[in-house]
Amino acid sequence: MFSQDDIFYMHEALREASIAFEEDEVPIGAVLVYKNQIIARGRNSIEKEFCVTKHAELICIEKASQTLGGWRLLDTTLYVTVEPCMMCAGAIQHSRISRVVWGCPNLRFGGHLAGEGGLLEEEAKRILQKFFQKKRSDGEDT
Q1: Catalytic residue among 16, 23, 25, 57
Q2: Is the separation of the CB atoms in 63 and 33 below 8 Å?
Q3: For this structure, is 123 an active site residue?
Q4: DSSP code of 110?
């Protein structure tokens, strides 16, 4: 079902999620691939930017649009560590991303986007669980 390239790119998305974790953001990472090249990387930066739309996927879409010089991201694949939310799913559809691969399901806000899920699911789930366990032990409301 998933290729070695898929696994490689999901590891890159997990790297972005790890950076988000270190920045005290919900650890979701994404990379967008065009012609076997990563053209954009993103990670959640909602807390740092004080903006609810600073999701990993939207950051990737914005960067890729600048790189390719247009908003139509045809023939691209988005790798994201967690199933996109409804807001991101809409942006993914509107930007014409051809394929989406995610790690673990988003049980709370998943946008039920057509795509392929479950790639490196345990790794993606583990970083989220670790993040929220830390938040709860620090007494923060999540």
Answers
A1: 57
A2: no
A3: no
A4: B
Share of the chain above pLDDT 90, in %: 85
C-alpha span between 49 and 71 (Å, rounded):
23
Task: Name the nearest CA neighbour of 121 among 96, 141, 101, 95.
Answer: 101
Which residues lie closer than 8 Å to 57 by C-beta, 6 or more apart?
Answer: 30, 42, 78, 80, 84, 88, 91, 92
Is residue 100 within 8 A of residue 80, CB to CB? The reply is yes
Q: Give pLDDT, residue 142.
A: 62
Residue 38: CA atoms inside 13 Å, Cβ hemisphere, count? 17
* pLDDT top residue among 41 and 112: 41
Percent of the chain with pLDDT over 70: 99
State the pLDDT confidence band at 33, using cuts at 50, 70 and 90.
very high
